[in-house]
Amino acid sequence: MSALSPVERRERRERRRRQELIRWGIRIGLALLIFLFGVALGQALHDNPKPSSTVTLERTLRIPTSGGPGSTVTP
Would 59 be classed as within a structural domain? Predict the structure, then answer.
């Protein structure tokens, strides 16, 4: 077993630190992407109306016949 020199120990620590920072960066990036996907999905669901919310209105129009009480013709 050989002992590491101070320079080798420092390089190993720096390499580990860099790898750990990269791992945390990937984790944070994935969490951010999942969060943004959830926000986008929520907005898409909120913007679209429900398919069963159709309202139909039906009216019957009655046309008055001539000579009724509303006639303005005088004899």
Answer: no
Please count the residues of the chain: 75
Instruction: Examine residue 5 and state whether it is found in any structural domain, yes or no.
Output: yes
68 domain-assigned: no
Residue 73 lies in a domain: no
Looking at the structure of the chain, the number of domains it has is 1
User: Each residue's pLDDT tens digit in the chain (75 positions)?
Assistant: 578 898 999 999 999 999 999 999 999 999 999 999 999 999 888 877 666 767 788 888 888 766 556 556 666
Q: Characterize 19-56 residue by residue with b for buried, 16 or more Cβ atoms within 10 angstroms of its Cβ, and e for exposed.
A: eeeeeeeeeeeeeeeeeeeeeeeeeeeeeeeeeeeeee
Q: Whole-model pTM?
A: 0.52
C-beta separation of 12 from 4 below 8 A: yes
